[in-house]
Specification:
The complex is a heterodimer of chains A (298) and B (173). By secondary structure, chain A is an all-alpha fold. Chain A has helices spanning 2-33, 43-53, 61-82, 87-106, 111-142, 147-152, 162-175, 203-226, 233-256, 262-297. Chain B has helices at residues 20-27, 63-72, 84-88, 119-142, 145-151, 162-165, 167-170; strands spanning 9-14, 41-42, 51-55, 58-59, 78-82, 98-100, 110-112. Chain B has a 5-stranded parallel sheet with strand order 2-1-3-5-7, sandwiched between helices. A two-stranded antiparallel ribbon of chain B has the order 4-6. Classes of the chains: A mainly alpha (298), B alpha/beta (173).
Chain lengths: 298, 173
């Protein structure tokens, strides 16, 4: 119990700090990849503090409420995850959080905001199947949906769940809002459609979205960590290293791809979920089927 | 301390100009000048912006656009007029449709002269704008909200002759 409280408290305090630093490192690496010097590593914190100082102008009060709900449910999702709770509950809570963000964008009449919300919904359609398949695969492999049980399982899940891992990396690009799938919102200085979701959100609310994104990123990297956890020190070290490598990979992809149309985002992520996800699930089922057949004949 | 000088986000609008200054503004984003070193981002959304960069002069058709962008920006905000057309109308000054510089419709804080203004001059102007931004921020923090609101409205009726208003700033470069 104490361990759970410590983990959740650590997540609450350190996730925004680490998430913000990762975002800063992202911007520096991106700049270096483009032959630029780039901003200071703590630039994302400057941005958020600046946004907090700005005048509050919102089109309606409910929008601020929805944005606040988005932050709260992202934080709850992360807390559930780090408390070792049920993976399905965590995924549903994450979905609820993103729905609040979509409603926040829908609550204004700006066409850019509305299109941004629609594109965010399309993105949710694109990544949701793969996220669910990931949870199911963990259940098939470890026999439990509980994160604590998955973490304590004595074998690394990466090899039997390799297809799932690659599929999850694919949709991570959508969740991190990186090119080629930064359709509804992006971190770079883009305009109009690409900033769609946040068109009508400014000042403090925009700062809250940014902080929520840091919380979300840490939680999403935690998912990657699950593939490597085997209850030992080595598992933790390998897991953290792979998390950082995955983050770097996403930055690399971000800088090397042009933005795709939403059709491509939707089709490709479903194809990946079907090809890698379902194929992997089928492989996981083989021993189950074999054992039942043996059970019947024997 | 104010964080606004650490993370100035810019919105750029090009009025009726030859696009020379426009291109120089974009040149500031390239690896050669890399304004992101100062945390500067070219946003394209007035609601996210702190600094309003205007290139080109104001005409009958774009005066409402410029005014609207300015009004949509949450304060504290700063306007930087880039290039001689944005300062006073430049070579287009006598045209029948041209009103003149940006200060005909919105208050301008920094004038960056040049035809076209060099990226170095633009960055210099933006950095100068940062100190104005910090001043506005601290003025807002010290003055009570009511008094600040009462002081604001005169902001929009500026029109002093650009030549008189900023003789000191323009002299350089």
């Amino acid at each position: 119990m104490v361990k759970i409280i410590v983990l959740v408290a650590a997540y609450l305090i350190f996730a925004p700090i680490v998430g913000g630093l990762l975002a800063g490192i992202d911007r520096v690496i991106t700049a270096r990849m483009q032959g630029r010097v780039g901003p200071p590593v703590i630039q994302p914190f400057y941005d958020v503090f600046k946004l907090m100082e700005k005048e509050a102008v919102t089109v309606n009060k409910t929008q601020d409420f929805y944005v606040m709900c988005f932050l709260i449910f992202i934080v709850i999702t992360g807390c559930l995850f780090f408390a070792g709770q049920n993976l399905l509950l965590i995924i549903f809570s994450l979905t609820l959080a993103s729905v609040f963000l979509v409603i926040a964008a829908y609550s204004s009449n700006s066409p850019y905001s509305q299109i941004g919300a629609e594109r965010e919904l399309l993105q949710a359609m694109a990544y949701e199947p793969m996220v669910l398949i990931t949870a199911v695969a963990f259940f098939l492999y470890t026999g439990s949906f509980e994160v604590s049980a998955i973490l304590a399982y004595e074998k690394m899940a990466i090899l039997p769940l390799l297809g799932i891992f690659l599929g999850y990396l694919f949709i991570l690009t959508i969740k991190f809002r990186k090119s080629p799938f930064d359709l509804s919102m992006s971190h770079h200085g883009h305009q109009e459609l690409v900033k769609g979701l946040t068109t009508e959100i400014s000042g403090k609310s925009l700062a809250l979205i940014e902080i929520a994104h840091w919380y979300e990123n840490i939680f999403l990297l935690g998912f990657i960590f699950l593939f490597f956890a085997n209850g030992t020190q080595t598992g933790i070290i390998v897991g953290v290293i792979v998390c950082l490598a995955a983050y770097f990979l996403e930055i690399f992809i971000d800088n090397n791809f042009a933005r795709m149309k939403w059709q491509f985002a939707l089709n490709s992520s479903w194809v990946v979920a079907a090809a890698l996800g379902f194929a992997n699930l089928a492989v996981l089922y083989v021993p189950v089927i074999l054992s039942t057949m043996i059970g019947i004949t024997g | 301390m104010s964080y606004i000088t650490k993370s100035p986000w810019i919105i750029h609008y090009d009025g009726s100009s030859c696009n020379g200054c426009d291109i120089e503004v974009l040149a500031c984003l390239t690896p050669m000048y890399d304004v992101e070193r100062f945390g500067i981002i070219n946003t394209g959304n007035p609601k996210h912006a702190d600094i309003f960069l205007v290139t080109g002069s104001i005409n009958e058709q774009n005066k409402e656009v410029v005014r609207q962008i300015y009004e949509q920006m949450p304060s504290p905000k700063v306007v930087v007029a880039v290039g001689i057309c944005a300062n006073s109308g430049g070579i287009f000054k006598e045209c029948y449709n041209i009103l003149g510089g940006v200060d005909k419709v919105i208050p301008v804080d920094v004038y960056v002269p040049g035809c076209a203004a060099r990226p170095e001059a633009i960055i210099d102007g933006v950095v100068k704008g940062l100190s104005v931004l910090a001043e506005k921020r601290s003025a807002k923090a010290t003055v009570a909200p009511d008094a600040a609101a009462a002081a604001e409205p005169d902001e929009l009726e500026v029109p002093v002759e650009p030549g008189e208003a900023n003789g000191a700033d323009k002299g350089g470069a």
